[in-house]
Write a structure and sequence with these properties.
Layout (H helix, E strand, L loop, with lengths): L1 H51 L6 H5 L7 H19 L1 H8 L10
Helix pairs in contact: 1-3
Amino acid sequence: MGHSSTKQTKEESQEKLMSDELRNQINDIIEGEIQLGINEFLEEKQRKESDQGLGFVTSEEAKKLKVKVFKDEVDKIMKQYKKIKKKEKSNISQVKKLGLVDKHGRPL
């Protein structure tokens, strides 16, 4: 019995580690997209300043530009991702991937 609980604890530990890694990957993707948006914004602002000679955000303000992403939103994305992955691993999904049909030619 002790062996079973140790195995379960080990699996829970691995699941938590994978979940943390997934959260970090999602955060990196979000940060990358935000940074890309900020860079495009600053490039556009810089182009407008050179065209007009005026800007609406000072360079000091641009350096302090920060964006927050709520943990709840990341959790929602992770939940959706895990649900999709779980469906992909299901037996029905595996059968669909094989393209199997019944004796009448209908997909299983």
